[in-house]
Amino acid sequence: MPNATQTKNRRGFLGDSMRVAGALATCSFFGYLAGRKGRNRELLWQIDPDKCMGCGNCATHCVLDISAVKAVQCFPMCGYCDICTGYFDVGYTELDTSAENQLCPTSAIVRTFIESKAGQRFYEYTIDPAKCIGCAKCVKGCALMNGSLYMQVMHDRCLGCNECSIAVACPTEAFCRVPAEAPYLMKRQAIPLVKKFSIR
Amino acid sequence: MSSCIGATLFAAVVVGTYALYRLDPWANRGNDSPTRSALDLQDQFSIQPQLIHYLQTSEIPIPLDVVRAIAVGLEDRIYVAGDRTVYRFGSDGAGEVVLHTDGEPTCLAIGFNRHVAPGTFYVGVGKAIEVFLPNGEPLAVWHGLSDKTVLTSIAVSENDIYAADAGERVVIRFNPQGEIAGQIGRTDPDREMPGFILPSAYFDVAIGPDGELYAVNPGARRIEEYTSDGMLEGFWGKAGTAVDAFFGCCNPAHMAILPDGRFVTSEKGIPRIKVYNGFGEFECVVAGPSELGVRDSATVDARLEKNTQVFDIAIDSQGRILVLDPNTKRIRIFESRQEK
């Protein structure tokens, strides 16, 4: 007399096989998703420019002799002014490039004439990162007017310390971790302006 | 032998203590770079007392979250635009909401006695001007401005309404029906019109006692006079950090005209309110940073929300200078010391 296992037909066998394969595929899919979510992403130190007050600690607290933090210029926010309060000392005597009239202690801002329009002269201000020590004097000066200059960690110099000594010293907790795919941050105010210029 | 061990231990303790206090393995004490990054504004913040000819005599708190503009209407009533309303203050300081706008107002003007529609409110909201009757009922909305429009100021003459558009960098002249009657200040070398330079969205207009139009050209640090058909009549103003000049890239931010034709200017960056005579010669200071409650430490904070905001100004028929303080949300009223 045949037993129960011998009564299983081919259709039943194929159905069981499909169910087992489906369960295995589902487990594999969710296992893949879980593994992907748990994978470590590379994170880098960066300064949130909307939280940075320009205290100057970036210049003095980086483990590097010359800080990895530099000033950057957001051109869509810049007024290209002839009298830039981020470039000229507030007590300037002449609008020239002499050291006593410059705010930057290392002359790291390059002032380039662009055009003359409506009787006014317009200039472009760019940062020479090799000279910038990250003191944020220009950032504070620019904040008196348009606020287009701000501080960022330069990842070609940053050592990526596990505990960033500037982050420890930062009075406004402006230091944060950002994904390596998007290592630089913009001011909130600049984002729509940059989009507008990009569309053009 | 034991003394040798003791000396070694003592030396080890000394070296260990020195290392503990002197060395900085986690760089908590920094990299020994000089800390000379302070922005010294002391000279600009301290104004000689003999230059200050005005005195704050009273102040009125404003029950709004955001305050944008101040204006004086009929019977010297003070109006403040902010949030989505226009608020009115009586002589006793009591306030009430006069009208509600469709969006956040950015500028405000009220028809004066000789205006074609006395008491009418003209409120800049987004890319339109909302017009209200003296009792606050909506009358009209003037559209027809461009997509780039940023309304920053409105001024009314006897027959016209002038709106400063910082986006298009022109002053737009409306007739009382809300039709655009002309544009003033667009760059035109043939008419020797240099155009307005606006590095930031501060662009003020005002009407002089004889109906002439004055507009601030902040990027040029000067005030310009125009005819109603847009001809440049003249200008004055100079750039500099001295008290008689306009500071920084773009100033003054606001302007008002006294009943006798003298100018009152309000600057941003280093907040100071000053009076110039009708020829543009510096006369005196109304209020410097300390009179406006701003300390120099506030200006060395680069955060946008910590920046000192700009003080709008208005003038009543008695020549009192009304300063809208957005930091404390108060109206500060200044009067001449001589008249006091």
Q: How much is the average pLDDT of chain B?
A: 89
Shape of chain B: elongated
Number of beta strands of chain B: 24
Note the total helix count of chain A: 5
List the total number of helices of chain B: 3
CA radius of gyration of chain A is: 29 Å
- Main sheet: strand order of chain A: 1-6
CATH topology of chain B: Methylamine Dehydrogenase, Chain H
Largest sheet report of chain B = 4 strands, antiparallel
Topology readout:
The complex is a heterodimer of chains A (200) and B (340).
Chain A: H1 10-38, E1 43-47, H2 57-61, E2 69-73, E3 109-117, E4 120-127, H3 137-143, E5 149-153, H4 165-169, E6 175-179, H5 190-199
Antiparallel strand pairs in A: 1-6, 2-5, 3-4
Chain B: H1 2-22, H2 42-45, E1 54-61, E2 67-72, E3 78-82, E4 85-89, E5 95-100, E6 105-110, E7 121-125, E8 128-132, E9 138-142, E10 151-156, E11 161-165, E12 170-174, E13 180-184, E14 205-207, E15 213-217, E16 222-226, E17 232-236, E18 254-257, E19 263-266, E20 273-276, E21 282-287, H3 296-299, E22 312-315, E23 321-325, E24 330-336
Antiparallel strand pairs in B: 1-24, 2-3, 3-4, 4-5, 6-7, 7-8, 8-9, 10-11, 11-12, 12-13, 14-15, 15-16, 16-17, 18-19, 19-20, 20-21, 22-23, 23-24
Task: Describe this entry's structure for a reader.
The complex is a heterodimer of chains A (200) and B (340). Chain A has helices at residues 10-38, 57-61, 137-143, 165-169, 190-199; strands spanning 43-47, 69-73, 109-117, 120-127, 149-153, 175-179. With 200 residues, chain A is of the alpha+beta class. In chain A, strand 3 and strand 4 form a beta hairpin. The longest helix of chain A has 29 residues, at 10-38. In chain A, 36% of the residues are buried. Chain B has 340 residues and is mainly beta. Chain B has one domain (41-336): 7 Propeller (Methylamine Dehydrogenase, Chain H). Chain B is 9% helix and 36% strand. Chain B has helices spanning 2-22, 42-45, 296-299; strands at residues 54-61, 67-72, 78-82, 85-89, 95-100, 105-110, 121-125, 128-132, 138-142, 151-156, 161-165, 170-174, 180-184, 205-207, 213-217, 222-226, 232-236, 254-257, 263-266, 273-276, 282-287, 312-315, 321-325, 330-336. In chain B, the strands form 6 sheets. A 4-stranded antiparallel β-sheet of chain B has the order 1-24-23-22, with no helix packed on it. Chain B has a 4-stranded antiparallel β-sheet with strand order 2-3-4-5, with no helix packed on it. In chain B, strand 3 (78-82) and strand 4 form a beta hairpin. Chain B is elongated. Chains A and B meet through helix 2, helix 3 and helix 4 of A and loops of B.
